[in-house]
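Work Package 4 report. The design task specified in the project plan requires that, given a folded chain encoded as structure tokens, an amino acid be chosen for each position. We show below one input record used in the internal validation round.
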């Protein structure tokens, strides 16, 4: 499995990552959501370089011009709820994609930091032979991404899988490498942080992405 870390090269990704990590700037919820969306747009553009294209003759007011247009059938899948602005960033670039949504959440055992990930809802088209892009901002343990893919796999076998995140950990990357089809999976992330705390949150990370986007939950 190929792993691509966009922060390994200088680009505007570094600027936007500094803003989403900054605990003071995070208080501007609209700015935080916008930056997550921008990161989705940048990553969509980078992923687009790996997709397949065909040539189409386009009639202009003054003639005809051959243009390369997307040939892949793309399904853009998101893990709710934190993935929504990231998803919108992708969709604003890959606007002809079909869409899939998976609800995954951590269910904690009483009086402990232990949890299991539950999948409660999936809405997806068939994915047979298509390019599947699964987006989730935070790949901490990788369990949510693993279960989301297993749920989506009930809808068919994709031609290729792109896993997209804002921050990932080596632990999550290892799990995805083990659990998803290695030869046809590419993992994209804006940065990699090495540590998880006792609650399985990424350190230094950026905090609870869902809460920063939409407010705290009970």
């Amino acid at each position: 499995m190929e792993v691509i870390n966009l922060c390994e090269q200088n680009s505007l990704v570094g600027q936007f990552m500094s803003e989403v990590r900054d605990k003071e700037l995070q208080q501007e919820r609209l700015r935080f959501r916008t930056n997550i969306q921008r990161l989705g747009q940048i990553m969509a553009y980078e992923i687009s370089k790996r997709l397949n294209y065909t040539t189409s003759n386009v009639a202009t007011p003054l003639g005809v011009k051959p243009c390369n247009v997307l040939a892949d059938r793309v399904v853009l899948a998101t893990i709710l709820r934190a993935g929504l602005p990231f998803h919108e960033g992708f969709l604003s670039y890959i606007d002809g994609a079909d869409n899939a949504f998976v609800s995954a959440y951590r269910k904690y055992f009483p009086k402990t930091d232990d949890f299991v990930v539950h999948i409660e809802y999936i809405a997806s088209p068939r994915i047979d032979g298509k390019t599947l892009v699964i987006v989730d901002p935070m790949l901490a343990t990788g369990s949510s991404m693993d279960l989301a893919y297993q749920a989506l796999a009930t809808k068919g076998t994709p031609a290729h899988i792109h896993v997209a995140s804002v921050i990932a950990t080596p632990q999550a990357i290892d799990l995805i490498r083990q659990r998803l089809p290695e030869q046809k999976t590419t993992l994209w992330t804006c940065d990699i942080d090495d540590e998880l705390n006792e609650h399985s949150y990424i350190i230094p990370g950026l905090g609870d992405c869902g809460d920063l986007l939409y407010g705290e939950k009970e």
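The chain has one domain: 2-214. Validation will be extended to a larger panel in the next phase.
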